[in-house]
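Q: How would the structure tokens look for this protein?
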Amino acid sequence: MKSRIRLLKNKIAKTGNVISGLLPTRWLLLLIPLLMATGCKKVTEQTGTIRVCPAVLSTDPANGAINVITNKKISVTFTVTMDSASINETTFLVYQGNNPVFGVITYSGNTATFTPSVNLTANTVYTATITTGVRDPYKSALPVNYVWSFNTGAVPAVVSTDPVNGATDVVFSKLITATFSTVMDPSTINAASFTITQGGLVIPGTISYSGMVATFTPISPLTPKTVYTGTITTASKDAAGNAMAVNYNWSFATGVIPAVIATDPVNTATNILLSKVVTATFNKLMNPLTITGTTFLLKQGPILIPGVVTYTGTTATFTPTGLLTPNTVYTGTITAGVKDTAGNILPLDYVWSFTTGNAPVVISTDPVNGAVNVPLNKILAANFSTTMASSSINATTFLLKQGTNAIAGTVSYSGTTAMFTPSAALNSNTVYTATITTGAKDPSGNPLSANYTWSFTTTGSLPTVISTDPANGATNVVLNKIIAANFSSAMNAATINLLNFTVFQGAIQVTGTYNYTGTTATFTPSVLLIANTLYTGTITTGVKDVNGNAIATNYVWTFTTAPIPVIVPPVLGSAAIFGAFGGNAGITNQGINTVINGSIGTTAASTLVTGFHDGTTGDVYTETPLNVGLVSGRIYTAPPAPGSATSAAIATLGLSDANIAYLSISPASKPGGIDPGAGELGGLTLPPGIYKSASGTFNISNGNLTLDAQGNPGAIWIFQTAAGLTVGIAGPAGARSVLMINGGVPNNVYWYVGSAATINGAGGGIMSGNIIAYSGVTFSTPGNVVQTVLNGRAISLIASVTMVNTTINVPH
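A: Here is the predicted structure in token form.
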């Protein structure tokens, strides 16, 4: 038996079988009986015949191999030539866990090869098996399945770049690097696999590789404010031959060239504070380590100024150790040694200069030195040549004395002005001395060169209000009252205004105009005061005399207006039926659209009534195609026909009653009339009452006149003018109206006109009331087509009434 084993060992050695090298002898002793039992081929030796089975001689990758490349072809070499038909997908298996790997199997010589359909997965364990289904040409099978495993390596990848993807403000001299996940094959890191492009242009440079880092060194500096793209291609492979899975691309942008964009002070600035902190602002963040006392310099001529340099944000600051010298030129320099955070260097020195200003001085005071008649409530002021440090303007540096006695007060500062407000009124007729000490400094710490002192003399007593008109508590004050206040001394007219001289009716301020003459201030209300109403007048402490002294306290008084007068309405008698009455002179119409809603009359002959026809009888009074007027009532005239003695008698009685009414509304019968607008009624709103023109004429030209009945339908207005009444102005927009509001009716309005009345000579407008004029009434002028309206009556005592395209509505 021993001789047969020895014979088998020798035979294996002769055939190149390495089983004895792979297995210890003790395992071989166990294997021999198994081989003896299988159908392995027989080998005859001197000592006898044994069976020899095929075996796996080697594998690639070897069992337990690591970092296997992902495109690896897996091969098995047998100890003997095998039957190629038995080497197939059922006998040569590759698995990743439980998942089969598919591929193509070939056989050549003693070696079977498995080529995966796709690359293996990186960092993954694979298991390969040669089953007992493989046989040699003698049909001898592999005694047991041969199983081995191996591990693929990681696919190399770019793990970082410098600059990183999306980086900005990259330095122009940048060395561009890419760091890999593993050691790479240096021969694959070259100009074909590592490129830098700008747009479609390839940037020339040199490439080196060390450790796991590839470096691209541009031949020339990069261009500012430019986007570049880096690419590492799949041609780059690791030391095991693994290629990158995909191209790696990244981009970055270079920054701008650092520059100084502003300085403080600016170049050539003058009058700079002596304590000025000098700054230089850059267009981008700078490297603070490069902003130092050697790169930020301040000089006066060739002399270097000592100071401290700091940097924050984008601003470098130079703080001189001491104050600068007045009226001196200084030069600031930022040298080319400064760099931005990316390392880009300022290309040239940046140089600028400025000039310091003077020490502060007091340039004026109020009151001025030697002033007299200074108000007792005077607030002192001192104006400086420059802005001062407000903290240095206080009660220890701004002093006021009367002799040796210090005057108490508060000190404030604004702009370039310091103010001293005495705690109490100054004494009258007294000399005071004010002082600004050298403790007052500008923001640089520059003090006045010497104390500044001045003096002044106060005035006499404070002004007072000695009387008012109306007096305090007055009653029955007329509605057009001009309100006055009399002072103890001459006042500053500019202080007499709506803020300091007010008149209120409850919470409502009365508007008006102000005047000041001598020692009297007057207030003329814009509208009439309201009847039977309490008013409050106030003169405030804002009112000052010519020396600036204000009254000590507000002066307040009240008064009450008179009630609305009770007016007995005039009686028109038989004149009430007439819309127009032409005295003894007739009535004329010169338009085709004149309508009288009532009667007309005259004591003159019928021939003096022209341009009308009687709407009741149909009688025509000298009408032409251009002069047509309808009278809806009757026309009363003296003969000839269609006038008659009967109609003449009615006209005569009407004229008599009109005279009586005229006299009843005259100033002699109705005294006490006021003139609220100095003869101009336009734009006013008037309550019921009696109104008399002081000048002898009334005009309504500045706007419409509004009559406010204040809810009383029986309210009566009487307007008295010794001469004329004129309503409206020239021009197409010149018509004016008399409007009734809050219950007022035209029948209760009476116009006493001492001579003639002209109503809207340009045509248009609405007139209200009963016009009784001594010497005639005229409506519109020939050629006007715009209708003029009178809600009332137009009665002339001794002259004619003339109208053009006029409508008269007789009230009832």
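The two ends are 165 Å apart (CA to CA).

Residues 1-38, 42-49 have pLDDT under 50 and may be disordered.

Upvote if useful.
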